[in-house]
TrEMBL record:
Gene3D superfamilies for this protein: 2.60.40.790, Tetratricopeptide repeat domain
Full protein name: SGS-domain-containing protein
The CS domain, residue ranges: 175-267
Residue ranges, compositional bias (Polar residues): 277-293, 353-370
Region (Disordered): 121-168, 268-312, 347-386
Molecular functions (GO terms): protein-folding chaperone binding
Domain (SGS): residue spans on this chain: 299-386
Pfam families tied to this protein: CS, SGS
CDD domains documented for this protein: p23_CS_SGT1_like
Length: 386
């Protein structure tokens, strides 16, 4: 087990030759461990040793079928399909990928590999040998017999007082080793930040219509990881986008603003239009239950260094020279303030106003951009959750 854990750590750290050696040592103790063959096949693939990777994947398929474990069969067949692709056996790869689809048609990377194989098949002449299927569901390969050590372990009775195996804590991926990938469906684009041990409570993800920003500290190193895409290939709907943090990655799901649009890349080279008056300045309904103070108008919280402002007074002063006002005075004032701000100030205003339920309005992006703005109701009012 120690060799297997070392192999997994080396594989995660991209030390593939070291991982191959550790999994080889692990298989000496347990020659029927399907996962060890799949992991060693992965390491062989990363070092472009495709014949060795295919051999391990096919042994894994046979052993997984013997165990009749659906998840292991799917993982082994998927790894097998990839090696067949790299060895230019495209029809065989397509056939095996069909097996994977039957086992789990929701496997996230299936569309990517299907597309790769389809492109290669289209490029082949009609009489090309690579168009012919020469493989079977379960390959005819000889699997190693169980070692004496493995057999002995199965029949041994654990001794009384044997300490429980405590899993090792997850070692955070160093900042310079963190990788990312992405894939898409008709409705969404999913971005994976492949970072082990990312702290759930310290991961910051900022969605904007045209950009994405992800940042978090790498535990134990003092380093800060940052991932920024600006502009994105196409606009997204920030309100429908989301993210989650798992022990092995940060998964960000972006909702496409125009469903069905096919992204050719994650980052675009388009010109991003600045927000104009009326396009995104609609003020959401107030979420406060009113308990008005009778003596004076409420002083709303602000990030201004000069202190709190009486917004009602400012509205009146701004409108003194106006003969006709369209809509209520407060909305008119906010629209005027928004339209006269820089793009960064507009972004700060919308983020602070929406996240605080209309109780905080800030134009300082450096202050509100990296945190969630909490409600700060005026005196005599209280925040209400819906």
């Amino acid at each position: 087990m120690d060799a297997a854990r070392k192999g997994e750590a080396a594989l995660s750290a991209s030390n593939y030759e070291e991982a191959i050696q550790h999994f080889t040592d692990a298989l000496k103790s347990n020659s029927s461990a399907v996962k060890y063959y799949i992991n060693r096949a992965t390491a062989y693939q990363r070092t472009k040793k495709y014949p060795e990777a295919l051999a391990d994947a096919e042994i894994a398929v046979v052993l997984a079928h013997k165990r009749a474990t659906r998840e292991l069969i799917k993982d082994a067949q998927f790894r097998r399909a990839q090696q067949l692709f790299f060895l230019e056996r495209y029809a065989d790869a397509e056939y095996v990928l069909g097996i994977v689809k039957k086992l789990d048609d929701k496997e996230k990377t299936l569309p990517i590999w299907s597309s790769k194989i389809e492109r290669k098949m289209q490029e082949l002449p009609e009489d090309d040998e690579r168009r012919k299927v020469t493989t079977k569901d379960v390959p005819d390969v000889q699997v190693p017999s169980e070692t004496q050590e493995t057999t002995t372990k199965k029949t041994e009775t654990p001794s009384v007082g044997t300490p429980a195996v405590v899993p090792k804590p997850i070692v955070p991926t160093p900042a310079n080793k963190i990788k990312d990938d992405w894939y898409q469906s008709n409705d969404t684009v999913t971005v994976n930040i492949l970072a082990k041990g990312a702290p759930k409570d310290k991961v910051t993800v900022d969605f904007d219509k045209d950009s994405l920003s992800v940042s978090f500290p790498v535990e134990g190193s003092g380093a800060e990881y940052s991932f920024n895409i600006d502009p994105l290939y196409a606009p997204i709907d920030p309100t429908e986008s989301k993210f989650r943090v798992t022990p092995n990655k940060v998964e960000v799901t972006l909702k496409k603003a125009t469903l069905g649009t096919k992204w050719k890349a994650l980052e675009g080279d388009r010109q991003v239009e600045e927000a104009s008056e009326g396009s995104s300045t609609t003020i959401p309904q107030h979420v406060l239950s009113s308990k008005p103070a009778q003596d004076s108008a409420p002083a709303y919280p602000t990030s201004s260094k000069s202190g709190a402002k009486n917004w009602d007074k400012l509205v009146v002063e701004d409108l003194d020279d106006k003969d006709e006002i369209e809509g209520d005075e407060t909305s008119h004032f906010f629209k005027k303030l928004y339209s006269g701000a820089t793009p960064e100030q507009q972004r700060a205003m919308m983020k602070s106003y929406q996240e605080s339920g209309g109780t905080v309005l800030s134009t300082d992006w450096s202050n509100v951009g990296s945190k969630t703005v909490v409600p700060e109701p005026p005196e005599g009012m209280e925040a209400r959750k819906y």
